[in-house]
Write a structure and sequence with these properties.
Layout lengths: L2 H9 L10 E4 L3 H4 L7 E6 L3 H17 L4 E6 L4 H6 L5 E4 L18 H5 L5 E7 L14 E8 L10 E3 L15 H16 L24 E5 L11 H15 L2 E5 L5 H10 L5 E3 L8 H6 L3 E5 L2 H8 L4 E5 L5 H4 L6 E6 L19 H4 L3 H11 L5
Parallel strand pairs: 2-3, 2-5, 3-4, 5-6, 6-7, 8-9, 8-11, 9-10, 11-12, 12-13
Antiparallel strand pairs: 1-13
């Protein structure tokens, strides 16, 4: 069953024109693991001497990224000496998966679970198979680990959390193949990018010296009301209702942010919420936006650049995410991010023109104010 079919089964079958159940949380791998500690790592390198040698650079990348992690290497008995000498892992465990000589055939199609259990490996946060061929990937099925990573392989019981495509599958004219060492460093780089969350994102370089806070010492929320396409946006009255509820519940001041294209809409929202609780900064210079966002207690926006920025700055961020693009690829990622997303059959159309949607933007309109407000309350740890 595909990922999205499983979601639809869980949240209800949805037609292209019927309202959808909101899916609240995080879907992209880096967002799901952003706050998880990687303390125990298992590396699989079950093949031969040359294979271990071309994996050393990838192993060094993982060791450098997680210097305090307890790393275990599972390797062929013939590689135990080199593996211990290299100093990149804490434990080396021998396992006869392949024969000592590549010329000898070994049938591991029906790998006995008991053989792996007998090794006494324990449990891991992350297990990585450092082999681009798929034959050893089935060992990961018998390992107790929160996450699995490697190149694609068929017939696995447990799907890999991080799965790179097979490097030999080309269509049309084949580009030059990647060297074996390059393939493994590419895998290691992907593991680092997905599972290691740096404490400070380089987006912080965009924050200026700053001026006075919009509301002095009062906490405030930033609502970015625009997106690259109207198909990614909510109706203005729904957004105004949400802002009113946030002000009433949390006592925040609210900054309206947007480009000059949102001037009319934001003026209408501001007119519905008069008084000292709202400041309209629509059309403010782009260079000032990072500083304003960085000081906020909450950011609410759509699938657009300012929402990515807020997430990168570790501001509590709630993204009202439509069905234009796949959140596994494009959702904002940070330590304090929630997307509210509606899965419908026409999702991921990649359309941008307002007249291109035949289903009245059901992926956006089926997300209710209650859905988003509940997500905000959860992010602020105030949900009762």
């Amino acid at each position: 069953m595909s990922f999205w079919r499983a979601l639809k089964k869980k949240f209800g079958k949805v037609s292209t024109v019927a309202p959808a159940a909101a899916v609240t949380g995080n879907i992209a791998l880096p967002a799901r693991v952003a706050n998880e500690a990687i303390e125990r790592i298992l590396l699989l390198k079950l093949d031969h001497i040359g294979d271990l040698l071309v994996a050393l650079r990838a192993m060094e990348m993982l060791r450098t990224t997680w210097p305090k992690a307890e790393i275990t290497l599972l390797c062929g008995p013939w590689n135990v000496g080199f593996a211990r000498t290299c100093g990149l892992v804490d434990h080396v465990v021998a396992f006869d998966f392949f024969a000592a000589s590549a010329a000898e055939a070994v049938d591991n199609d029906e790998l006995d679970h008991a053989r792996v259990v007998a090794l006494g490996l324990g449990t891991f946060d992350l297990a990585v198979d450092l082999r681009h061929d798929g034959d050893s990937r089935r060992v990961l099925d018998h390992v107790e680990t929160r996450h699995r990573a490697g190149y694609h392989a068929h017939g696995l019981k447990h799907r890999l959390d991080l799965e790179l495509p097979l490097v030999e599958l080309y269509h049309g004219a084949a580009p030059p193949p990647l060297h074996a060492e390059t393939r493994l460093t590419l895998l290691a780089a992907a593991v680092v990018a997905a599972f290691d969350r740096p404490l400070i994102h380089p987006a912080r370089r965009l924050i200026g010296a700053g001026g006075p806070r919009p509301f002095g010492d009062r906490p405030y929320a930033v609502f970015a009301t625009g997106a690259g396409s109207p198909l990614r946006q909510w109706p203005a009255d729904r957004l105004a209702e949400l802002i009113g509820r946030v002000i009433a519940r949390f006592g925040f001041g609210v900054v309206l942010a947007g480009s000059p294209k949102e001037c009319e809409m934001n003026a209408a929202i501001a007119a519905r919420l008069p008084g000292p609780d709202l400041i309209d900064q629509t059309g403010a210079p782009l260079a000032e936006i990072p500083t304003t966002i960085a000081g906020a207690a909450l950011f609410v926006g759509y699938d657009t650049g300012t929402t990515h920025l807020a997430a990168m700055l570790d501001v509590a961020t709630v993204c009202i995410y439509g069905g234009i693009s796949d959140p596994r690829v494009w959702q904002p990622v940070g330590r304090d991010i929630t997307i509210v997303h509606a899965v419908v059959d026409c999702c991921y159309c990649h359309q941008s023109r307002p007249d291109a949607c035949p289903n009245d933007r059901v992926c956006m309109t089926s997300i209710t104010v209650d859905d988003v407000f509940a997500a905000i309350a959860a992010r602020l740890d105030l949900c009762h």
